[in-house]
């Protein structure tokens, strides 16, 4: 009853917030001026756009960068490697392409094999895959597939059974990513803050921790560390403050501070924009709303656009928009009103077109374009990604914008680089079965005063920075993680660190990817959305 009361109170507060006058410092957008441009920052960056995609390890997209092989049909899309391309820590180092410790050797997935099924990316299997740093147990622990198996129509085999997890793409499929790396800045040492699936990555992106969670509906095994009803999220529950998440789902709510709270405290404009967020039916009561829009794809048929557990701010009462209310007016996008900073993706296009882009923008694609194996693929993902980047580069905001492209988790795909363990843990979920058959602790001992179940860093993920101030054709090797994005926001807009359980205070800095003294990319790189090839630069 208390939970329901709090939920209804949150909806009432957000619905009536439009009656409160917006702070004077934010009203500039009403006369066509950019409201973020006048905010004080420590760098020239006035707009940060975080494109948060789904389920890709670093080696899965960059395993042989910058060397690509022609597709089976003879086509090549990545045709020019810059002479000064720096060395990347990938599968080309140490003979890992043909002398790999896993039971299946890494293999190239062709452009014609862009669609695959989802691999196992749960917390404990991912720990088992890295096998105490030996990195030799991926097909056994996270590989999915067998002859003829499919998932929603997506192939799970391509002749490799569970060894599919060792597959990687090159620049003749993930062409846009490789071209962005050639012209802007790439990190080869960026990690998920923890092991585990999408909810884990999403919460770490905005709060730097998955602690302080309470199970409010359902009891799916592996949701909370140590099998508890409260504590650390290690699974994929839906957000408790999202009326578009069905009542049949497992729900959790989270208390504590996220980066949205910090931005609100300084009246800095921000928003989370997600495909399919606009309701299509039902009633605005707890878990009775329907966000049922879908997109029909050639290979998978209809794919529902909105995925509730990809929306991290809906886990927190103070930053949630349970009824998925739209902004009270387009001029309020980024400000606190009935939408409470949570929007449909269409509001991003409105704000960009009207030169009112919030200072901090998080973008989540519709499910068929978010890169998640089983409901998306690199080609559909590329179309959306390049369309967004091209539009920003052609906008008035480009001159002081940084775009970060990264991912929520690895999907369990093979990556050869063991992560640095900065959070030790001896939760029951940290005991893993290795190829030797023993049930062994995998992540040390939880420090006194810390919460168990937060083993991390997790798997290595791609991260690209696109900006006039991004270093050109540069690879950053400093260890960073998802909470480093929180730290960048805090440092750039002068916010206090979240602290407590959050990793933000100890996160590595992303500053090495920028050169703020020399904006090298005033002339932006424009790509073809369908192929990823360079159109102009």
| CATH superfamily annotation | Alkaline Phosphatase, subunit A
Category from helices, strands and their pairing: alpha/beta
Query: Describe the biggest sheet?
Result: 8 strands, mixed
End-to-end gap: 58 Å
Write down the oligomeric state: single chain
Instruction: Count the domains.
Output: 1
Strand content: 15-25%
Q: Please give the CATH class.
A: Alpha Beta
CATH topology grouping: Alkaline Phosphatase, subunit A
How confident is the prediction overall: mean pLDDT?
Answer: 92
Low-confidence stretches: 1-31
Shape: globular
As a whole number of angstroms, the C-alpha radius of gyration is 22 Å
**Which strand order do you get reading across the main beta sheet?**
17-12-18-1-19-22-6-23
Query: What is the β-strand count?
Result: 26
What's the layout of helices and strands?
Layout: H1 2-16, E1 47-53, H2 58-62, E2 107-108, H3 123-130, H4 138-141, E3 150-151, E4 154-155, E5 167-168, H5 175-183, E6 185-187, E7 190-191, H6 198-207, E8 213-217, E9 230-231, E10 238-239, E11 251-254, H7 259-265, E12 270-274, E13 281-282, E14 289-290, E15 294-297, E16 301-304, E17 342-344, H8 345-353, E18 360-364, H9 378-393, E19 401-407, E20 431-433, E21 439-441, E22 463-466, E23 474-476, E24 480-481, H10 483-493, E25 526-527, E26 534-536
Parallel strand pairs: 1-18, 1-19, 2-5, 6-23, 7-24, 10-11, 12-17, 12-18
Antiparallel strand pairs: 3-4, 6-22, 8-9, 8-11, 13-14, 15-16, 19-22, 20-21, 25-26
């Amino acid at each position: 009853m208390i939970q329901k009361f709090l939920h209804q109170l949150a909806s009432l507060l957000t619905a009536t917030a439009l009656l409160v006058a917006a702070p004077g410092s934010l009203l500039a957008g009403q006369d066509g001026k950019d409201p973020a441009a006048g905010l004080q920052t420590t760098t020239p960056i006035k707009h940060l756009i975080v494109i948060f995609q789904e389920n890709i390890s670093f080696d899965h997209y960059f395993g042989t960068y910058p060397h690509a092989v022609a597709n089976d049909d003879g086509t090549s899309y990545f045709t020019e490697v810059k002479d000064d391309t720096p060395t990347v820590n990938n599968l080309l180092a140490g003979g890992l392409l043909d002398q790999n410790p896993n039971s299946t050797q890494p293999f190239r997935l062709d452009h014609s094999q862009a669609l695959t099924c989802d691999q196992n990316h749960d917390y404990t299997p991912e720990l088992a895959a890295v096998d105490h740093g030996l990195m030799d147990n991926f097909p056994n622990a996270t590989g999915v597939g067998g002859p003829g198996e499919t998932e929603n129509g997506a192939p799970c085999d391509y002749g490799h059974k569970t060894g599919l997890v060792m597959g990687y793409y090159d620049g003749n499929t993930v062409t846009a990513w490789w071209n962005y790396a050639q012209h802007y800045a790439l990190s080869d040492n960026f990690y998920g803050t923890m092991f585990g699936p999408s909810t884990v990555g999403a919460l770490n992106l905005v709060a730097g921790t998955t602690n302080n969670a309470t199970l409010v509906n359902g009891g799916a095994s592996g949701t909370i560390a140590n099998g508890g009803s409260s504590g650390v999220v290690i699974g994929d529950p839906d957000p408790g403050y999202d009326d578009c998440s069905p009542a049949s789902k497992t729900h959790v709510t989270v208390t504590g501070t996220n980066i949205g709270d910090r931005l609100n405290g300084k009246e800095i404009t921000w928003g989370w924009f997600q495909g399919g967020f606009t309701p299509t039916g039902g009633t605005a009561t707890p878990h009775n709303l329907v966000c049922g829009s879908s997109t029909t794809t050639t290979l998978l048929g209809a794919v529902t656009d909105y995925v509730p557990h990809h929306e991290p701010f809906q886990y927190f009462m103070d930053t949630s928009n349970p009824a998925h209310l739209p902004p009270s007016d387009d001029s309020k996008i980024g400000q606190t009103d009935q939408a409470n900073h949570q929007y449909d993706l269409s509001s991003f296009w409105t704000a960009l077109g009207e030169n009112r882009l919030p200072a901090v923008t998080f973008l989540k694609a519709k499910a068929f374009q978010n890169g998640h194996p089983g409901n998306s693929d690199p080609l559909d993902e590329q179309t959306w990604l390049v369309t967004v980047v091209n539009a920003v580069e052609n906008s008035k905001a480009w001159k002081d914008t940084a775009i970060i492209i990264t991912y929520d988790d690895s999907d369990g795909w093979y990556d050869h680089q063991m992560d640095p363990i900065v959070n030790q843990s001896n939760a029951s979920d940290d005991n893993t079965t290795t190829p030797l058959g023993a049930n062994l602790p995998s992540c040390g001992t939880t420090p006194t005063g810390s919460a168990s179940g937060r083993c991390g860093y997790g798997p290595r993920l791609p991260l690209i920075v696109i900006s006039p101030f991004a270093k050109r054709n540069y690879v950053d090797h400093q260890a960073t993680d998802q909470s480093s994005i929180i730290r960048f926001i805090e440092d750039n807009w002068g916010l206090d660190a979240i602290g407590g359980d959050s990793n933000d205070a100890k996160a590595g800095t992303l500053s090495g990817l920028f050169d703020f003294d020399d904006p090298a990319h005033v002339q932006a790189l424009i790509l073809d959305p369908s192929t990823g090839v360079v159109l102009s630069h």
